[in-house]
DNA sequence: AAGATATGTCAACAAAGCTGACGTATTCGA
DNA sequence: TCGAATACGTCAGCTTTGTTGACATATCTT
């Protein structure tokens, strides 16, 4: 089978439906790697990793989130979460508030420093993504790119993003 | 762009340029997670992880690749690569051929089983991506989505994908 | 023959995921 | 009111996949 390109193109007989689209797959892989790479460099300065970033991001995005909600969004175990959460609290980027109606809950909030870092990271990533959107053809193209990303996700998660990264079971 | 967080919306004074686009960031995160999740389930059956997938993918995509070229594409250390490469060779998914003009080189090729698995995984991911492209508005929208992904990547990597996932220093 | 290059390997470590078990505080429900 | 369920935290140990640093071997280049 001829490699390097031939099988990613439509054949004359029209049977290209189940031929893998290697270009698209690899674009997604490399794009995501560079996308997270931006933040990685900043996080190094703080002694944090990607796991810290994800936790900080969602807490900053939706202050007052509980631990259970965060676990739902991240889909990791509480042990994994606790390791990084403890560090974020210890270094003063997140604070835990006792739930008012249910005192078992810990409402997670970013501190000032936490919000600053989260915003800084989000701006960095936004800059790259917006620059990429500019490569799309007009506002229709930009909207297409946004719809594409939403459509790649499983439907359950897609609802969450549109509703502000809220876990499905909470967002109803 | 009705997001759901005050800080993601354009302000009346028009200063929305450096406000983070949380929706876009999270779409990318969740989309990538679900995208790789498809393959993870299959890989489990073989006792392989994501690292094996990446190696197998690029070897299947460009048979005859050398170890150095693979390292260039993946951007990991030879020790990390060797661990998974050894397993892929041991289980009969990749074979190593001695370079003809330079016998120090190991030309990596997928075996029949390797090619089958690589294609199966690529088809699974292609199915999801193509379904997502269908959510874009027409062929112009689909092209916009493709351009978006290429534009998110660092330019160096983008050249590689267009040239068949070839590392920059080889593809010239 | 000397030095550079391509690859492989040993050892040790780190990040971030996992399972299983167990403890404590709090709330809920019969 | 009391026992079960829930929310959270923690201890211990394991896995995958990345990292450094050191060193060995074969081969090519000069």
How would you explain this protein's 3D organization?
- Two copies of one chain form a homodimer.
- Chain A has eight helices and two strands, in the order H-H-H-H-E-E-H-H-H-H.
- The first copy, chain A, is mainly alpha-helical.
- The first copy, chain A, folds into two domains: 22-134, Orthogonal Bundle (Arc Repressor Mutant, subunit A), CATH 1.10.10.10; 136-167, no CATH class.
- The first copy, chain A, has a two-stranded antiparallel ribbon with strand order 1-2.
- In chain A, helix 2 packs across helix 4 and helix 2 (50-61) packs across helix 5 (112-133).
- Chain A is globular, with a radius of gyration of 20 Å.
- The N and C termini of chain A lie far apart (50 Å).
- Chains A and B meet through helix 1, helix 2, helix 5, helix 6 and helix 7 of A and helix 1, helix 2, helix 5, helix 6 and helix 7 of B.
- The structure holds a DNA duplex (30 and 30 nucleotides).
Supply database-style keywords:
DNA-binding; 172 residues; Arc Repressor Mutant, subunit A; homodimer; mainly alpha; disordered N terminus; 6% strand
What percentage of the residues of chain A does DSSP assign to strands (E)?
Answer: 5-15%
Shape of chain A: globular
What is the count of DSSP helices of chain A, taking H or I runs of 4+ residues? Answer: 8
CATH topology value of the largest domain in chain A: Arc Repressor Mutant, subunit A
The low-confidence runs of chain A, each spanning 5 or more residues with pLDDT under 50, are 1-11, 167-172
User: What quaternary form is this?
Assistant: homodimer
In sequence order, what are the helices and strands of chain A, one letter per element?
A: HHHHEEHHHH
Q: How many β-strand stretches of chain A?
A: 2
Radius of gyration of chain A: 20 Å
**Widest β-sheet, arrangement of strands of chain A:** 1-2
- In CATH, the homologous superfamily of the largest domain in chain A goes by the name Winged helix-like DNA-binding domain superfamily/Winged helix DNA-binding domain
Tell me the major beta sheet of chain A: 2 strands, antiparallel
Helical/strand content category of chain A: mainly alpha
N-to-C terminal Cα separation of chain A, in Å?
Answer: 50 Å
Count of the separate structural domains of chain A: 2
